[in-house]
Design goal:
It comes from Aneurinibacillus aneurinilyticus ATCC 12856. InterPro entries: CheY-like_superfamily (IPR011006), OmpR/PhoB-type_DNA-bd (IPR001867), Sig_transdc_resp-reg_C-effctor (IPR016032), Sig_transdc_resp-reg_receiver (IPR001789), WalR-like (IPR039420), WH-like_DNA-bd_sf (IPR036388). Keywords: DNA-binding, Phosphoprotein, Transcription, Transcription regulation, Two-component regulatory system. This is Response regulator ArlR. This protein is of the alpha/beta class and about 230 residues long. It folds into two domains: about 5-125, 3-Layer(aba) Sandwich (Rossmann fold); about 130-225, Winged helix-like DNA-binding domain superfamily/Winged helix DNA-binding domain (Arc Repressor Mutant, subunit A), CATH 1.10.10.10. Helices cover about 45% and strands about 20% of the residues. A five-stranded parallel sheet has the order 2-1-3-4-5, with helices on both faces. A hairpin with a 2-residue loop joins strand 6 (about 130-135) and strand 7. Helix 2 (about 35-45) packs parallel to helix 3 and helix 6 crosses helix 7 (about 175-185). The longest helix has 24 residues, at about 105-130. It is elongated, with a radius of gyration of 26 Å.
Length: about 230
């Protein structure tokens, strides 16, 4: 069940939105001024925040700005103001979308669904770009490799060899196949270059006294095996 925080000083409107969202299956929290809303936004975990622009004690722009200093919770700004400057100010402060009052609940729900879809897609993209094994993390977007959170400098070939092995977890990769995938099928290098680069990776990634990240399958090639449990 997704949790929604409504920060809106018009209690009748807040209650109307709350009931509609509960009917749609959301869990809803409310706040009626900027300071209490900011406190709830920062001290609890929410899947989305519906934030009024004009609030007592602390306006919506400032609330949004302070939330964005520490959190990436999706925010839809609710505003009775229709000027471009007001909308731009809301978006520049960190809001993901805005909707003008008087609002139609169908439009609000549609905007919420669209924003959830974007956030879910971003989450999936981030997950797809991360390759993890034991204490090793590879980010294929930034092409960085970390061991225990510390960046390990790899050459282009070392990086490509590691990512191929990680993407084929538990699959034994022959030297010929690794040579084709990393160096190219028409490469003039010998298959023993694979052994050389595996040794380079082990020297950079393995911890003293622990089993190697990359395991040798005698007479065949190499494999990274997923740890059970």
């Amino acid at each position: 069940m997704r949790k929604i925080l409504i920060i809106e000083d018009e209690e009748n409107l807040s209650r109307f939105i709350e009931l509609e969202l509960q009917y749609e299956g959301f869990s809803v929290g409310t706040a009626y001024d900027g300071r209490s809303g900011l406190e709830k936004a920062l001290n609890e975990e929410w899947d989305m925040i519906l934030l009024d622009l004009m609030l007592p004690s602390l306006n919506g722009i400032e609330v949004c700005r302070r939330i964005r200093q520490t959190k990436h919770t999706p925010i839809i700004m609710l505003t009775a103001r229709t000027s471009v400057l007001d909308r731009v100010s809301g978006l520049d402060s960190g809001a993901d979308d805005y909707i003008t009052k008087p609002l139609a609940i169908e439009e609000l729900l549609a905007r919420m669904r669209a924003l959830f879809r974007r956030m879910d897609q971003q989450t999936e993209k981030i997950a797809d770009s991360l390759l993890n094994h034991k204490n090793i993390e590879v980010n294929t977007e930034s092409q960085t490799v970390k061991r225990d959170g510390e960046i390990i400098a790899l050459t282009k070939r070392e990086y490509e060899l590691l990512t191929v092995l990680l993407r084929n977890m538990n699959r034994v990769m022959t030297r010929d196949l690794l040579l084709d995938l990393v160096w190219g099928y028409d490469s003039a290098v010998e298959t023993n270059i694979v052994d050389v680069y595996v040794r380079y990776l082990r020297n950079k990634l393995d911890m003293p006294g622990q089993e190697s990240i990359i395991q040798t399958v005698r007479g065949t090639g190499y494999v990274i095996r997923k740890t059970e449990g």
